[in-house]
Write a structure and sequence with these properties.
Order of helices and strands: EEEHEEEEHEHEHEEHEHEHEHE
Structural class: alpha/beta
Distance between the termini: 17 Å
Shape: globular
Radius of gyration: 20 Å
Strand content: 25-35%
Helix content: 25-40%
Mean pLDDT: 96
Number of strands: 15
Largest sheet: 7 strands, mixed
Amino acid sequence: MTAFKAFVLQSTNPVKTGVEEWSTDQLDGDVLIKVSYSSVNYKDGIVGRTGNISEFTPLIPGIDLAGVVVESNDQQFKEGDEVIVTSYRLGTGHHGGFSEYAKVPAEWVVPKPDGLSLKEAMVLGTAGFTAALSVEQLEKNGLNPKQGPVLVAGASGGVGSLAVNMLANLGYDVAASTGKKNEEDYLKKLGAKEVLDRDDLVDHENKSTRSSKWAGAVDPVGGKTTQYILSTLSYGASVATSGLAGGVDVSTQVFPFIGRGINWLGIDSVRCPMDIRKNIWKRLATDLKPTCLEDEVVIEVKLEELDQVFKDILEGKVRGRTIVKMG
């Protein structure tokens, strides 16, 4: 039994949170991990500020973690292994990463690939994994740099920032959309060729087709932004949708699909199969590794600062990635 600090969602009605001292015998799973870093995602903000999608309380939130194995009941992992855990029910239906120790099912654990540090793995986290999965799915559906510009919506957020940098590094001409008018220099530093105002990429008229503009798009926003993207994709192009910050309702018609042969790709990081998951992490350590991992894209906080981070991320005030350093 080892005592440790954890950020705990204590109740949901009303929402109450705080840093508490727990012991490892309060945790359940096959692999005990000493957590080095976690990261903060939009989903964490929902759990921490509203209690929504949490399956029980008290709950340690945090859908990402990276650290070192302390004990394991599974032969795949041994003491001293550096590992990554993201998604599944971590931080929503199982105690998560905002904690100095975590214990998880062995089938959720990914060996950290060479080429990434534990800190870099959490600068990426679910946001980086989602961005990379989006890029890979777009490529599998025919996207290449010769086809034309690629749009990244919500580009100043976690998924968006990393997607801009990944695509630019692969040789794509990236158009980055943001609602933050002071972020043009930041996005161009990440590799964007063009920065667009978020409001210009919202479908207010419910038009199913417009002039063709994009060879592909990364869409972590949803709602009327997705509607606009669907109406402006070039022939045979695809959009990879992974988020809902802009809403869950999308209104369209069959015309862009049967007239332009476009593809709407759903990106799911939660239940992504382990073989695909391991391959994406390998790419994140190699050809898709961003060049901005130690840049101004990263903010580092402590467990005690999480309440404010949750508030800011839900209000759209967070740029890039926020990571949590333990101990």
